[in-house]
Amino acid sequence: MTIARPDWTLREEAHRERADALTAAHRERATRAEKHPVWDFLFTYYSYKPAHLRRWHPGAGVELADAPERRDWRWYSPGRSPGSVVPDAATFGAEKTELAALIERMLRRTASRPGQFGCFGLHEWAMVYRADEPRHAVPLRLGQAGTDAVVENHELRCTHFDAFRFFTPEAVPRNRTPLSRDDQPLFEQPGCLHAGMDLYKWATKLGPLIPGELLLDSFELARDIRLLDMQAAPYDLSAWDVAPVRIETTEGKAEYVRRQRGFADRGAALRTALLNAWLGDGAREAA
After folding, report:
1. What b/e readout covers 187-219, taking b as 16+ CB neighbours within 10 angstroms?
2. How many angstroms separate the CA atoms of 121 and 125, rounded?
3. CB proximity list for 19: less than 8 A, separation 6 or greater
4. Residue 131, Cβ neighbours under 10 Å: how many?
5. Which strands make up the sheet holding 76-78, listed edge to edge?
6. Are 51 and 74 in contact (CB under 8 A)?
7. Residue 142 in contact with residue 150, Cβ under 8 Å?
């Protein structure tokens, strides 16, 4: 597929406008050196700056006509016609062999499993369980003793290593499944909020192989999931107008699971779209 320059520059401009709208509040806060306990995570944990987010790419194998300015961009190769370029999945795979294999394995194995919906966001509670010092400069809704009691009255069912690794030492043995970095592809599952947010991470790491529109779709999913993640956390975020989802109650659990299932559905569609955009219909099965 080849996109003529007038067409792809229109898509590029539309992408920039959408990206700027999505990051406007964060960029405004940054001018005042103002921190936000919910939204900063999207730009610190994932380390992808607003300037990177606004750069549009067509996706692997899609040729841009008359695009000499992109000739030296990373993971672009010359196209079939003079002055054209195309994001090259083979070049990426050769340069980033281990990363490419990991991303494909994570996407495919996660997609192959049923979602689990019984964690109730308790990973955030486990990160402050019996903590000597607060993890963040934000008060706990139920205080330390109340927070500890919620953990002790539930089974921890975290399946995501990058959440589990922040558990306090006292919380680690309470998790139903021991987790490690090497075993991460074995336990990742599509009901996990962080697995959904990480679709944005994988999209950023694939760079020009992912269409810009799909990158922003994954960012929007990560943004929406992040809000629920913090609403269900033990923190009192009322100063930032964040209403809690009280997962320590029956009603809160029901709301959490309802929204979690919706995110799992959105994540499933994005997971498929990422694989198709990157590897196409002839992609090999993950080992």
Report:
1. bbbbbbbbbbbbbbbbbbbbbbbbbbbbbbbbb
2. 8
3. 50, 53, 54, 212, 216
4. 16
5. 2-3, 63-64, 85-87, 76-78
6. no
7. yes
- Looking from the CA of 63 toward its CB, the CA atoms found within 13 Å total 12
CB 110 within 8 A of CB 188: yes
DSSP-derived pairing of the beta strands 76-78 and 2-3 = unpaired
- Per DSSP, helices labelled H in 67-113 are 89-95, 97-112
What mean pLDDT value characterizes the chain? Answer: 95
**84: Cβ–Cβ under 8 A, 6 or more apart, which residues?**
2, 63, 64, 65, 66, 67, 78
CA nearest 89: which of 281, 277, 285? Answer: 277
pLDDT value of position 134 = 74
Q: What is the pLDDT of residues 98-135, one digit of tens each?
A: 999 999 999 999 999 999 999 999 999 999 999 988 77
Q: Please write the tens of the pLDDT for every residue from 190-234.
A: 999 999 999 999 999 999 999 999 999 999 999 999 999 999 999
Long-range contacts of the stretch 76-79 (C-beta < 8 A, 24+) = 76/208, 79/2
* Contact predicate 263/117, CB 8 Å: no
* Nearest 10 degrees: Cα torsion 238, 164, 201, 277: -120
Pairing state between β 85-87 and 76-78 = antiparallel
Q: Is the pLDDT of residue 286 over 50?
A: no
